[in-house]
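Researcher: Re-running this chain for the archive, since the previous output was lost when a drive failed. Same request as before.
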Amino acid sequence: MAVMAPAKKVVKKGGKAAPATATKQAKTKSDPLFPARPRTTMIGGAIRPKGRDLSRFVKWPKYVRIQRQRAVLYQRLKVPPTINQFTKAIDKNKAMTVFSLLNKYRPETAAAKKQRIKETAAATASGGTPPARMAHQVKFGLKHVTTLIEDKKAALVLIACDVDPVELVMWIPTLCRKMDIPFMIVKDKARLGALVHQRTAAVVCLTDVSKEDQAQLKLLQDVAREQFNDNSDIVRKWGGGIMGLKTQAKLDKRAKAMAIEEAKKQASLGQV
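Model: Regenerated structure tokens:
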């Protein structure tokens, strides 16, 4: 006797999908107290641990390592006053006042100078009046500023605190004191460079200012003389000699042990 196969169910095109079961709805329903945080396993998707500073495990570039090692050495070793004075830069408020004055006397850019030379040549050829140059400008460059200091033409000298090597500018404060030229040590060589359209500048100076800024310049000169030129502590005080945290803790522990030992000794002698 032949048995017929069961008829297949025909699904109509465009029909609706079957509704999700109750168990599937329960799985998709998230718990508000414990939200799901799916972890990514793709390249570069590793999750950094929260609350941990991993900077000490980073392989920093060589110039960063040298900067940090130099800073640590300047703390550990005894630094002579001639070098230590470059750590005594003026504060933020004074620096803002100084740079606001010097911004008025920034030298012209290369493009502006080229345009002025063209206009001067055209005016000379046509018999007209050539454009006038700025009367007072910020001077920069080690040799140029040194010559102005030696000739006593500089009115205020600014020296960067982070010149490397420091031997380039180490002698300028002494020269300024000898020639009685007010000077300041400021942060930093990049800021001085931006003032004169350069990447960096070790030293800049002002020779003179317009009449309306004379009082401001006189005030800054008095501040420079008080803080740097006439300050005897900055010439005599050595820097460095600061030990690391581990060495300080070791010495403190040794001092406490010695104090306890001395107390026991005095107690055994009957003096306490």
